[in-house]
Design goal:
Length: about 60
């Protein structure tokens, strides 16, 4: 009986963790949107990745 409860607890923990990760991923603005450009301009330029810098130049500058 303990084995079944342990397995159910692991499954419930996994489901909860999955929902948390999915919830966090929905918070980021779409690359190239006005909100994303504002967020990037507020971010320290030294913390930008090469891809972020290229996307910023392509979507926010030109």
């Amino acid at each position: 009986m303990s084995y079944i409860n342990n397995k159910a607890l692991k499954l419930a923990s996994f489901a909860l963790a999955s929902m948390f990760v999915i919830g966090l991923s929905g918070c980021a603005p779409e690359v190239g949107s006005e909100q994303w450009c504002k967020q990037m301009s507020d971010k320290d330029k030294g913390d930008w990745t090469a891809n972020e810098a290229a996307d910023y130049a392509k979507n926010c500058v030109f």
